[in-house]
Amino acid sequence: MTRTFDEMNGEDGVLRDAYRSVKPWLDTNSLDQLKQRSREAEMLFRRVGITFAVYGDNSAEERIIPFDIVPRVLTAAEWKSMSAGLEQRVRALNLFLADIYGAGEILRAGIVPEALVYQNTYFRPEMVGIKVPHGIYTPVCGIDIVRVDADTFYVLEDNLRTPSGVSYMLENREVTMRLLPDLTSEHAIQPVEQYPNELLATLQSIAPATASREPTVVILTPGSFNSAFYEHSFLADRLGVELVEGRDLFVRDNRVYMRTTEGPKQVDVIYRRLDDDFLDPLAFRPDSVLGVPGLIAACRSGTVTVANAMGTGVADDKAVYTYVPDIIRFYLGEEPILNNVPTWRCREPEALAYVLDNLPDLVVKMVSGSGGYGMLVGPAATKEQIEDFRAKLKSEPDEFIAQPTLALSTCPTFTESGIAPRHVDLRPFVLYGSRGIRTVPGGLTRVALKEGSLVVNSSQGGGTKDTWVLDR
């Protein structure tokens, strides 16, 4: 059986460098003291109102996301390697999107199958030939990372459409600094609080060339019933920009305007937080009341930037994910710094046969799934669930990929009975503007609070941690 990598404790009992000050702090705080700090953290989150909704759950529309008071700590060296890999990956995926909506060179070269792109649910023919301002399709990315040993970080998936979670990253740091001054004072921690300023600067930098004044940026939300609405309003407040719904915007002469009490005001950049289907009822779903009629025409005219660009979902499809190492080699001429998790494409007969023979040992995911939904964790599944997925795989193999059940690394986590290891992943946030690319040091650590669980999604019972990147 594969040994789980403990990020705090080495196999030989020697404390790892990143936790040299954390472990003594944990040892000097009693269980009652840790419980008190945990209760105070929950109270602060409730006071702030940071919530999320779970679709299909009628028992409670919104919940406070569980927060673990024990931070996850990475060294400067670990972060340097990881961030270089993240930035390499985002550059390559951006070039891939520009190519498939343009010349299609990677498809003609046979590196990525045409059918995987042109028949993809998230491919938008309406975007073909549209020149995205500054050529940047993915200014805001959240790349999910898992760790399996001291030196190996895998990319689990790419989130290039409307990646969420940055508000939790920022609030986690604020709560930690407030509640744990005795611990934070002992560390030189790289800051994350500059993220809103960097996000605004990134969005302004990709405004169309027609924006001669200081670009007007808005955040477009589906509304208060969306599961991530707290984050939308949080970011609008931190960036100092307007939070708008589709009804607040209109298109005239292929330009987007915002309705204000002083009359129409032209909008240059829309940081959209709703899916492609709902953005423009004239181009996509005609029954959508959330979007802006004529938005695609404005994009085609080059008078507005939509971030992230429509059609970016092709590049974070879980089947396309399997080709990202080849995408990096094709566009950048470099070897990937960060590797993918080994993956079987069920669309391929040989891979499908292997997956069907080994279902109890694998994790199976829908290529368009997210949030922990539409997946099978073989070792934790019942016989009925396995057979159900077997039938799905046989009927629609193109819709699934499979991966080994990784022994995700663990971090010390507060539980009702004391400190215990729990499995974690990490979502760092990468900003890509016309002035360069930057990864915020840390990101959002998600933790599986149930003992033995590998599912970290908040919708599936997971929580979050503050993530520290040390200066040295």
From TrEMBL:
Which organism's genome codes for this protein?
Acuticoccus mangrovi
Q: What is this protein called?
A: Circularly permuted type 2 ATP-grasp protein
- Pfam families listed in its UniProt record: CP_ATPgrasp_2 (PF14403)
Supply the InterPro entries for this chain.
ATP-dep_Glu-Cys_Ligase-2 (IPR051680), CP_ATPgrasp_2 (IPR025841), UCP005522 (IPR016450)
UniProt superkingdom: Bacteria
Q: Which Gene3D superfamilies match?
A: 3.30.1490.270, 3.40.50.11290
Circularly permuted ATP-grasp type domain: which residues?
71-448
